TrEMBL record:
GO terms for cellular component: cytoplasm. NAD-dependent lysine deacetylase and desuccinylase that specifically removes acetyl and succinyl groups on target proteins. Modulates the activities of several proteins which are inactive in their acylated form. NAD(+) binds at residues 107-110, 194-196, 220-222, 238. It is an enzyme of class 2 (transferase). The gene is cobB. It catalyses: N(6)-acetyl-L-lysyl-[protein] + NAD(+) + H2O = 2''-O-acetyl-ADP-D-ribose + nicotinamide + L-lysyl-[protein]; N(6)-succinyl-L-lysyl-[protein] + NAD(+) + H2O = 2''-O-succinyl-ADP-D-ribose + nicotinamide + L-lysyl-[protein]. Belongs to the sirtuin family. Class III subfamily. This is NAD-dependent protein deacylase. It comes from the Bacteria. It holds the Pfam family SIR2. InterPro entries: DHS-like_NAD/FAD-binding_dom, NAD-dep_sirtuin_deacylases, Sirtuin, Sirtuin_cat_small_dom_sf, Sirtuin_class_III, Ssirtuin_cat_dom. It is found in: Cytoplasm.
Length: 247
C-alpha cells in the first residue's frame, strides 16, 4: 500500500542507510506539533482567517501596513513561546550523525530546525525574526523613532521596515534555491514533510528529485498534490513518526 498509516519503517530505514544523499523538504506541518498554525489547513490554518494575497504580498502590506505588521508581531510572539518538536530533533540528530549526507531545505520561517540543532538549513522563504527595508534604504532611513505598535517607518522618506520573509511574487534567495535544486538532482532519497505542495518553486524540488530517479516519500497526515510524484505516502504526523524513522 503506497498510502499507509502503518508504514514499513524498517525498509525505509534501510534505504536511508544506503542513500548517498538525502534531501528533506519541510513545510508548515513540520511545526504543527510545536503549536505553530499551518497556512492551508481548513479550520486551523492562517488562510482560513486571512487572505494570502492581503497578508503575504508587498501590495497587501502597502494597502494595510498595520494589519500585516500586527500579524507578523503576533507570529513572532508565538514562535518565542514554542519549542522544536521530536520531528525537528530527529532530523537534526540524523544530520549531525551523518555529516554532508542530508540537505535540509525548509519553507518555514520559524527557525525551529535551527533551534533543534540542525545546520546547515536552507531557508527558502526567509526568517520571521528578521526585518529589512521595503525599498532600498537611503541615508535618511532610520526607524528608531516609530512609536508604539506602528509598523516601523523612516520619518524622512516613509520607507517601511518589513519582515525578512519571501512574499508571493518575490524571488527566493538565489544561493539557497540553487543549492536546493542541485540537491534535488543529486539525491537518491527525498522526504517531503508537512507541506501541501502548492507553492512553487519549493514544491518543484519533489518533481526534480523524482525525475532524477530518487525515491520520494511524502510524510503528511492528509493527501497532498505531491502524492502523485511520490513512491510512498506516509499518512502520519511528522513528530510522531520521524523519531522512529531517523533514530
Ligand atoms: C502535517 C502535520 C503534521 C499538518 N505532520 N504534516 C501558478 C502556478 C505555479 C506558481 C505560481 C502560479 N501563480 C503564482 C505562482 C508563484 C507563486 C506560487 O507558488 N503560487 C501558488 C500558491 C499558486 N510563488 C511565488 O510567488 C514565489 N516566488 C516566485 O515564484 O518568484 C518568481 C520570481 C522570480 C524572479 C523575480 C521575481 C519573482 C514565492 C512564494 C512565497 C511563499 N510565501 C509564503 C509566506 C511566507 C511568509 C510568511 O510566513 O508569512 O510561504 S506563502 C506560505 O505557503 C508560506 C509557506 O512557506 C508556503 C508553503 O506552505 P506549506 O508549508 O506547504 O504549508 P500549508 O499550510 O500549505 O501545508 C501544511 C501541510 O502540513 C498540510 O498538507 C497538512 O496536511 C500538513 N500537516 N499537520 C505533518 N503534524
Amino acid at each position: 500500500d503506497p498510502y499507509s498509516t502503518d508504514p514499513d519503517i524498517a525498509s525505509l530505514r534501510r534505504r536511508l542507510q544506503a542513500a548517498r544523499h538525502v534531501l528533506v523538504l519541510t513545510g508548515a506541518g513540520a511545526s504543527a506539533e510545536s503549536g505553530v498554525p499551518t497556512f492551508r489547513d481548513a479550520q486551523t490554518g492562517y488562510w482560513a482567517q486571512f487572505s494570502p494575497e492581503e497578508m503575504a504580498s508587498e501590495a497587501g502590506f502597502l494597502a494595510h501596513p498595520q494589519r500585516v505588521w500586527d500579524w507578523y508581531q503576533y507570529r513572532r510572539d508565538l514562535i518565542r513561546q514554542v519549542q522544536p518538536n521530536a520531528g525537528h530533533v530527529a532530523l537534526a540528530q540524523w544530520q549531525g550523525r551523518n555529516p554532508g549526507r542530508m540537505t535540509l531545505v525548509t519553507q518555514n520561517v520559524d527557525g525551529l530546525h535551527q533551534r533543534a540543532g540542525s545546520a546547515p538549513v536552507l531557508c527558502l522563504h526567509g526568517n520571521l525574526m528578521e526585518n529589512r527595508w521595503l525599498l532600498p534604504p537611503k541615508p535618511c532611513c532610520d526607524a528608531r523613532f516609530t512609536e508604539g505598535d506602528a509598523p516601523p517607518q523612516c520619518p524622512g522618506c516613509g520607507n517601511y521596515l518589513r519582515p525578512g520573509v519571501v512574499w508571493f511574487g518575490e524571488a527566493l534567495p538565489h544561493a539557497e534555491l540553487q543549492q536546493a535544486q542541485d540537491a534535488a538532482k543529486a539525491c537518491d532519497l527525498m522526504l517531503v514533510i508537512g507541506t501541501s505542495g502548492h507553492v512553487y518553486p519549493a514544491a518543484g524540488l519533489a518533481h526534480i528529485a523524482a525525475r532524477g530517479g530518487a525515491h520520494v516519500v511524502v510524510i503528511n497526515p492528509e493527501p497532498t498534490v505531491l502524492d502523485s510524484v511520490a513512491d510512498q505516502c506516509w499518512r502520519l504526523p511528522s513528530a510522531q513518526i520521524l523519531p522512529a524513522l531517523l533514530a
